[in-house]
Amino acid sequence: MDDIDTPEWADNPRLKRWLDSRRSAFPQWALEQGGRWDFSVASLGRLEELVKRRYPSYEAAESGSRSAFSSVAAWYLGEVLVHSHGLVWRCVPEEPPAPPVAGGRPLVYADRSTIPAAALELLDEDAEAGGEDDAIPWQPVIDPAATLQGVCAQEADWSLAYWAQACAEFRRWGETASR
């Protein structure tokens, strides 16, 4: 079992504080960003444009990553993936040294307990073989803050729609692999 699968990563005061503070800040953030944020996958294009306007480069997004705007935007992205693709929030229980290492910030994740047994078996077999089977999709583990920084790099294939599509494909694959 990986650390991310443990109850400590799923339910801890650090994650709860982070989620609660962003959830509380969201109504004001939404009002300041033009209102009508509905947590749909379709709203990710609007979020991406908003973030890119504020941060025209990766470096600008990185320097603004601890701002209230960025932290609520990251929470919103994560919540869209939670609501639309069944991902769950996870976070290392203890504050890591800055800058955050992988897993240092809250993540959204395709929880192993939600993956059908047959699909989980295929994922585990592929992982043991080195992850070389292209028919086995990537199991979503997404750092929303880093993902928003990535879209500001202006790379054509790095978009919020891409990540949402990857999550949807993983979910569909899991459903069909279990048949």
Structure overview:
This protein is mainly alpha-helical. It has eight helices and three strands; from the N terminus they run αααααββαβαα. Helix 5 (68-85) packs across helix 7 (144-151) and helix 5 (68-85) packs parallel to helix 8 (160-177). The longest helix has 20 residues, at 13-32. 30% of the residues are buried.
Radius of gyration: 17 Å
Globally, the shape reads: globular
Sheet-strand content, in percent, reads under 5%
The succession of helices and strands, N to C, reads: HHHHHEEHEHH
Q: Helicity, in percent?
A: 40-55%
Topology:
Elements: H1 7-10, H2 13-32, H3 43-54, H4 58-63, H5 68-85, E1 88-90, E2 107-109, H6 117-128, E3 141-142, H7 144-151, H8 160-177
Antiparallel strand pairs: 1-2, 2-3
Helix pairs in contact: 2-5, 5-7, 5-8, 6-8
Question: How is this structure best summarized?
Answer:
With 179 residues, the protein is mostly helical.
Keywords:
179 residues; three-stranded antiparallel beta sheet; mainly alpha; single chain; globular; 55% helix; 8 helices; 4% strand; 3 strands
